[in-house]
Amino acid sequence: MGRFFVGLRDAEELSGLAGSSPAYVLSRIVLNGPATVVVPDACALERMTRALRFFAPKRAVFAYPADDGRPWDGDVRDPAQTHARILARGATDGWIVAEAAALLPRVPALVSRTLRVGERVEPQALLRWLVAAGYLVAPHVEEPGTAALRGGTLEAWGLGNEGPTRVAWFDDEIEAIRGPARLLAAREALLDGAAAERAAAYVHAVANERGVFGQDRRSVLQDLRAGVWFASAEDYLPALADVSLAQLPGRHFLLEPDLVAMRLREAAADVWRRFDALPPEERPLVRPEDRYGTPREVLDALKGAQPITLLGNGFSSRPTAGLRVGHTGELAPTVHALRQLAAAGAAVVLVADDTTRAERIRALFTAHDLTFGDKPRPYTVALRIGDLPEGFTADDLVYVTADEIFGEKLRDRPTSVVSKFRK
Fold first, then answer.
1. Cα angle vertex 63, ends 59, 54, to 5°?
2. What is the pLDDT of residue 412?
3. Between 193 and 374, where is the model more confident?
4. Considering Cα of 46, then 49, then 55, then 57, what sign does the dihedral take?
């Protein structure tokens, strides 16, 4: 919209941006196809994801988060985060927001299976593939990553699909498929017989390099051959399949490149520090350099990304300073400031996070003779409902959140990565 966006559209570097203005600009630069923005940390991941969903409500926004645990801690990883990363890597449209530290682990190629009517495969064989791909067999299929076989019908809910896929057989031939034919694996590597034997060769080689013998090696191989995805199984991805740095789709952008580089160095140092701190007999039977890339490798892969900096030579946008209601609770100065911005030709948008709050705000401002327009237009103050983490002020465009005017209200924020970032 207006001079703010036009001045940045063709810039080699998007600099001098504040608040949620990077998401606003990105949502107008890439209108179709996939695009990826790499951010420094989990906080930036959440804020960018929310802002892109606000400014590009018709496009999917996928998060690519780092693991919730620490490297080599042996704890069970939240499968929701694995699922989020798989969906992001497989995206063919929309935005992918990637946390810098999430780009260090090496991962196998995406695994999927596309079913066809007329394909000869026994129901039990397809169910075994789903189990090897991380699906949970349950009496009823009620969420992604679950499967059930009842009589001659198999039901499986693939990641990213709107609902389950139902497959019917005549003898050993698929007779009908209802729902999406493509099923993404629910984990980053298959755990079938071939993968287990590959892992056995890798684990033996590493154990021999280190001179480790006994129960640790045996228990790892027993679990893998039994198809058990144990707590630290993600550490063994290089043993199960060929791995490489994740290739995220589309045009790439880099938010605060210096901070991204610093976070990569910190995360890589943590990987090696924690591995070296483990007693030799407790170290996973995997080479750290096989599981994780180096900061230089990741940054080299991002060389073509367009940088975005929040500080620069001058400011294309600024924080929404001076609009907050003071400790006296007087709304008149805020109303006056909003009127001045609109009178100068800006399209001013006040964002409330829900309908109830929007109606209260409308009543408060009406008492001060300020009425809201229905759409953002120059010389107008509009009211919108949505989840915008923070606003910004530009010469001809202003977004300000209700939290920035009245203070943040207490609200229940989802704690699960999937609940936070699922479109």
1. 40
2. 57
3. 193
4. negative
Residue 402 has pLDDT above 50, yes or no: yes
SS (H, E, C) the chain: CHHHHHHHHCCCCECCCCCCHHHHHHHHHCCCCEEEEEECCHHHHHHHHHHHHHHCCCCCEEEECCCCCCCCCCCCCCHHHHHHHHHHHCCCCEEEEEEHHHHCEEECCCCEEECCCCCECCHHHHHHHHHHCCCEECCCCCCCCEEEEECCEEEECCCCCCCCEEEEEECCEEEEEECCCEEECCCCCCCCHHHHHHHHHHHHHHHHHHCCCCHHHHHHHHHHHCCCCCCCHHHHHHHHCCCEECCCCCEEEEECHHHHHHHHHHHHHHHHHHHHHCCHHHCCCCCHHHHECCHHHHHHHCCCCEEECCCCCCCCCECCCCCCCCCCCCCHHHHHHHHHHHHCCCEEEEEECCHHHHHHHHHHHHCCCCCCECCCCCCEEEEEECCCCCCEECCCEEEEEHHHHHCCCCCCCCCCHHHHHCC
Q: What is the mean pLDDT of residues 34-56?
A: 97
Neighbouring CB atoms inside 10 A of 123's CB total 18
Residues 6+ apart with CB under 8 A from 33: 93, 250, 251
Tally Cβ neighbours within 10 Å of residue 301. Answer: 17
And the tokens for 1? 């919209």
Show Cβ contacts of residue 93 under 8 Å, excluding neighbours closer than 6 positions. Answer: 32, 33, 34, 59, 60
Q: What is the pLDDT of residue 212?
A: 76
Confidence label for 7 from pLDDT (cuts 50, 70 and 90): low
- The separation between CA 16 and the C-alpha centre of its own chain, rounded to angstroms, equals 25
Nearest to 167 by CA among 149, 184, 146, 185: 149
pLDDT in tens, 305-327: 999 988 644 445 566 666 787 66
Query: Average per-residue pLDDT in the chain?
Result: 90
173 C-beta neighbours (distance < 10 Å), count: 12
Q: Residue 81: which pLDDT band, with cuts at 50, 70 and 90? A: very high
pLDDT over 80 (residue 31): yes
List C-alpha distances in Å: 379 to 288, 321, 386. 58, 20, 22
Residue 329 in tokens: 């609770």
Q: Enumerate residues 6+ apart whose C-beta is below 8 A from 402.
A: 350, 351, 352, 353, 357, 361
Asked whether the predicted pLDDT for residue 351 surpasses 50, the reply is: yes
